[in-house]
Design a protein that fits this description.
The chain has seven helices and 13 strands. The strands form two sheets. It has a nine-stranded mixed sheet, with helices on both faces. Helix 1 packs parallel to helix 7. The two termini are 24 Å apart.
Amino acid sequence: MALPLADLRGPIRALFSDIDGTLTTAGRIEASTYTALERLGDAGVPVVLVTGRPAGWGQAFMSVAGVAAVVTENGGVTWVREGKRLSRLYGVPANSLPEWRRRMLELYAEVAAKVPGARLSTDSKYREVDLAIDWNEEASLSPADADNVVAMIRKAGFTASRSSVHVNFGPPHFDKLSACVTVIRQVLKGDGNDLDGYAFVGDALNDAPMFGGFPKSIGVANVRAWWDELSFKPAYLSEAAEGAGLREVVEHVLKVAKG
């Protein structure tokens, strides 16, 4: 079982955070959670958001939140600042995207024909690299059906992972962890081979690569809903769930950040 958050020690140079179910509470970000992120930034601890949500969400977050970078589409598109402008880092070469999209749409049609109720998420129109099949946001597939979708997609040679709301799938060349290593090297100017100085907090199945890659990985309490299914589990757990758990993490990071 994971250790209590109180056992986590510094130093912590930056906090990487999932969005849905971690930053959000009942589907929205509370004002107190925004304030917590601002406090971290003011204390010299950069925040990087890491999500399966589309690239369009990342651009918005870079404009309204004081974050150093936003990893979207499970690593497919990462938003960073270059002076006053925003730029994107892609998980695959940009010139390959039209062919990947054609193949993914063909695969989606096959999945939809075999799994009744499977449909693209409403946010897929804002995605640049991956696509998402809705299983638990506006649609209502069973976890077994969602896992069947994941298996079909992986068998076809694509990457696929189930979050708390979607099955994200795309080219098999990236994930959340690989994108975060890029952020550490290119944005935070750190050693991407040593993640011990950074912390990650998340709550869902698609956070498993991060739980496995970050020694200081934290699950907000609602991660217990997926505990037995996680291929890698967080090293630490907050007492509270969702945004309250994230705020609990921020308070602890502020105490131990300097080691």
